[in-house]
Amino acid sequence: xxxxxxxxxxxxxxxxxxxxxxxxxxxxxxxxxxxxxxxxxxxxxxxxxxxxxxxxxxxxxxxxxxxxxxxxxxxxxxxxxxxxxxxxxxxxxxxxxxxxxxxxxxxxxxxxxxxxxxxxxxxxxxxxxxxxxxxxxxxxxxxxxxxxxxxxxxxxxxxxxxxxxxxxxxxxxxxxxxxxxxxxxxxxxxxxxxxxxxxxxxxxxxxxxxxxxxxxxxxxxxxxxxxxxxxxxxxxxxxxxxxxxxxxxxxxxxxxxxxxxxxxxxxxxxxxxxxxxxxxxxxx
Length: 284
Ligand code: AMP
Ligand code: FE
Ligand code: FE
Ligand code: ZN
Prior knowledge:
It is a single chain. The protein has 284 residues and is α/β, with parallel strands linked by helices. It has helices at 21-30, 47-54, 88-113, 120-124, 135-144, 151-156, 174-183, 204-212, 227-240, 266-275, and strands spanning 6-10, 35-38, 60-71, 74-81, 187-190, 217-221, 243-246, 282-283. Strands 1, 2, 3, 4, 5, 6, 7 and 8 form an eight-stranded mixed β-sheet that branches. The radius of gyration is 18 Å and the shape is globular. Bound molecules: adenosine monophosphate, fe (iii) ion (2 copies) and zinc ion. The site of adenosine monophosphate has 10 residues, from helix 5 and helix 6.
């Protein structure tokens, strides 16, 4: 088991990161990471490229995904590792989410276009075929048009969920998410569960259901979790026997988060690898 840093939450341009999986894996290897997980939103399309790029680096690549779920009005992100990428339910459900995201992005752009010069083609130009579309791609188009300075500025204004242009998109419930990940041989970890704002803390009653469905852990060390929230997550982990992870949620230049700014212990990685049976981690 590697003693070098372990980062289990990163994004490539398959979703809203700014690097190809190859560039991302090379950067992680050059920084000396012992293990990383590629966790693009609602897509496994980057896995093979990430494995190939890791060859000869000595770094472990854990195949993963950040699954979108909705708990009523709240968006809840669920990290999924080592599941079968060909599982019929996962394939169908992620396709449905990506399609919902595409149409939702069109609706957001329609609304923004009433007030700012912006077209759908401007947004498509910021992504490639098959990309899991999100507000970050709209942000990039707004930056290129000169309406905002960078992605963060876009999220604080036009793209804020209370900014007047926000739209929701289809996603399964958190419980359905855990059930489908576990049924596909995967390991489910609740992503950044204690942040401010729209991604509000998951309630304890919901958590209890997820634990019963086989939830493995909580992402504790993440820059968006509040200090109070982290204390609460530690209590919940002790109470329900959940593992605690830490990760960067790196998006390349798309966010200030840096690779391995938060990490997971080798002991927790070992348990995660033992739990996942739907696919294998790649030893580079
Ligand atoms: P969406 O999934 O389309 O609702 O957009 C949310 C995504 O935008 C999250 O997954 C984040 O990766 C990204 N995001 C959220 N806030 C920011 C920010 N301030 N700067 C850059 N990206 C952000
Ligand atoms: Fe993201
Ligand atoms: Fe997230
Ligand atoms: Zn993420």
